[in-house]
Amino acid sequence: MAQGVSGAYLGTFFHTPVYGQMEYLKDALIEVDKDGVITRVALPADADYAQLVAGYRQAGTLTELPAGCVGLPGFVDIHVHSCQWPQSALALDEPLYLWLQEKTFPLESKFADLDFARTVYADLVDQLFARGATTVVYLGSAHLEATVELARICVDKGQRALVGKTVMDDPEANPSYYRDASAASAVADTETLIHEVEGMQHDCPQGVWPVITPRFIPSCTDEVLKGLGDLAARYDCYVQTHCNEGQWEHDTVLARFGKEDPYALQDFGLLRDHSIMAHGCFLTPEEGELFERLGVAVAHCPMSNPYFGSSVAPVRRLREQGVRMGLGTDISGGYSPNLYESIRQAVMSSRQLETGVNALVPEAERGGVPDSRISVVQAFWLATKGGGEALGLPVGDFEPGMAFDLQVIDTKRRWSDLTGFGVFDEPQDQLARILYLSNPENIRQVYAQGRLVCNKDA
Ligand code: GUN
Ligand code: FE
């Protein structure tokens, strides 16, 4: 079905409108208007269901999921360094400081070349689509032009994107070949990005937004942090940064300001409704309360935390505190652009947080944090509805009023069969198999805002 035409999708769908609760929509008819917004989900028990299906079929606007296929909401990946895609899976044996200085900054500096940037960014958007991500929060490089180009590519390809130019102006912390020329130029470039991206919004059904993006406190001067906080207030703009990620960063901020990241960021006006704070591994209960009160969201990045986080983020506790939270792959601190892997790692890491990990000390002294485990359905919520709530966008599940973002999962691929043997076949078993065992081959089509953006059967 083409974008701009209303129609309907018939099939079986899984989603999780409420944290931790899976809903199974068997043989559902999802009606979508010409703007790509869901208007109704009809079920076989509804009196007019048969008539509706027949009507769409007759009009030629019915898309039926093939036998063996089911639908999941498009994923929401809320922390991706677009300019680190070429080094995904590399150099992860380095600590963060050296990884940045020796590998990442040299790579990111190459995005001064717009042709290179276009090639990498066009590929990354396609790769993320191929793994089911329909909404993505990006950190670009420190270059304005390449970051504007990234936003344009997302607009053209149909990916819903929030895009920021990474700000890193401190000459003490960043190499001369790769940093903002000054605090003033960094703020001016960010303001230009806001105008450029807002200028793309009129012709972008799926949505595109600018994001104010100080890399993290250690790479920024006080002057730039204050300037960016002022911009955020003036333009009522999204903010993203790294916050409370690992021991080195945590200690550096504490030594500089005599307070932890969240309070320092708050002083600069960077903790706002729907600000996105990557990691949050060191967040205390008091800081969780602060985030909840201000509407600040955490981007949980379980694939990268084992490398740079020095810890496991307290996901369950933050959720119980009511903190908004979604998942990020954190390419390339996370090694893969596949949010399914983040779902799996989120569950596994939470189990290790609960038990502690050193078996050579007695269980009671192992450092486990009771009641820390999350379920795979809770992790699925983080990857979908949680991400949507973090961003304040109507995405992440199949309800009227939500954007129609869909991944069509084929459970019967020859080399990736997710059907089991008919022994355990309750809906929750089917969903768990998809979340744990699927690979990109199982995802056949992806729709964003009702537009077919990836078709592996074409
Ligand atoms: N902190 C500052 N920059 C980065 C980055 O690029 N990746 C991660 N994971 N943490 C950071
Ligand atoms: Fe990151």
Task: Outline the structure in words.
An eight-stranded parallel beta sheet has the order 6-7-8-9-10-11-12-13. A four-stranded mixed beta sheet has the order 3-2-1-4. The chain has a four-stranded antiparallel beta sheet with strand order 5-14-17-18, with helices on one face. It is an alpha/beta fold and 458 residues long. The model has no long low-confidence stretch (mean pLDDT 97). The chain folds into two domains: 5-73 and 397-455, Urease, subunit C, domain 1 (Roll); 81-391, Metal-dependent hydrolases (TIM Barrel). It is built from 14 helices and 18 strands. The protein starts with 6 loop residues before the first strand and ends with a strand. It is 37% helix and 23% strand. The radius of gyration is 22 Å and the shape is globular.
Task: Provide the descriptors you would attach to this structure in a database record.
binds fe (iii) ion, 458 residues, binds guanine, Urease, subunit C, domain 1, eight-stranded parallel beta sheet, 18 strands, 2 domains, alpha/beta, four-stranded mixed beta sheet, TIM Barrel
